[in-house]
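Look over this one:
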Amino acid sequence: MEAIYGGVLIGVAATMMLLFNGRVTGISGIVGGLLNPVSKDKSWRILFLLGLLVGGFFLRFFHPVSFVTVSNAWRIDYMIAGFFVGFGTLLGNGCTSGHGVCGISRFSFRSIISTIIFILSGILSVVFFKLIRGYL
């Protein structure tokens, strides 16, 4: 049931961002705009990211079981995975929040293809890392 609530919240947030700010809710684009020294619209980007962090702290306080992990992965695995996610957002010209939530809802063919590639890459990565670590 939590997944349904989360999906609804993400959908409402993405819709509000588009209606009130005229922007697609793609996290990599929001962060990229913060890192761009020429960008003049940093205030809403900072507030958006702060909202994500505050939401995470609230979740940690009110539903701590959400942060329990049963993974046997090594920390280096997480760092490598993070690098590939960042590299993938550069190659895909966006991330799953931009392509998967906002792009698919606008029937963007490029976003549909990108999201399929993101999901397949994630599946293959998990299988690969589990095989090399002996978990499969």
In short: The two ends are 30 Å apart (CA to CA).
